[in-house]
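Appendix B. Raw example, untouched.
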Amino acid sequence: MVRSLWKGTISFGLVTIPVSLTSAVSPRDIAFHLLDGRDMSPIHNKRVNAAGEEVPWEQVVKGHALPDGRWVALTDEDFKAANVRATRTIDVLGAVCASDVRPEYFDTPYFLTPETAGMKAYALLRESLRRAGRIAIGQVVIRTRQHLCALVPEGDRLLLEVLRYPYELRDENELDLPSADLKALGVTAAELNLAEQLVSTIEKAWDPTEYRDTYRDDLLALVARKAEGESIEVQEPPPAPAQVIDIAELLKRSVEQARSLRAGER
């Protein structure tokens, strides 16, 4: 069973809901280690102090530097003592339309599981949000940082989505983007119609099981081949496509290709 990262309560008006928080993601990254290329022996990192002496883990502490150069050491208990309530409570601050929160604000998903005493209140919060078409916005301290978060009704569960604060996002005005004035960009009605046809042709229901990390598979296959002593040669990448001249013709051919592929799937 997955171990909870955090236990506390959701504060929803005067209602408190005891819950636990567990990660909703299970990373499957391929592990790579640093080796000495001469004899393939693993390279080890050591924690050393200013005198070059190795420091055992039990002596390692977190510290904050003061302007005068001094350090203040902080323990796990200190982080809790800074604001006991904040470290144990998800404060619901409001309920907003999910569509109003732009995708770039969403960061990391977690599962919220109610304790036995909180089952009824948990279900009430989940269903009231679902029926209103809203998500709850709150704040929660995870480890040593307070996060903005959203409580999202999804099936039988409430997801806690850690959100980014506005200051964490780059200013989109720094980007050179085409405007919404398609006429000024030289887009014709025929081109727009063909683009809409292409989108319509590739429409499908969302099924995440259809998609696979093929690069991960290819990389593992390459590792297996090298382990068997096979010599690996880097293939030349395919030539870059020629500069688009007639976008309408390319869209038309894309629509025909998509229709042909869809017909073959039936």
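End of appendix B.
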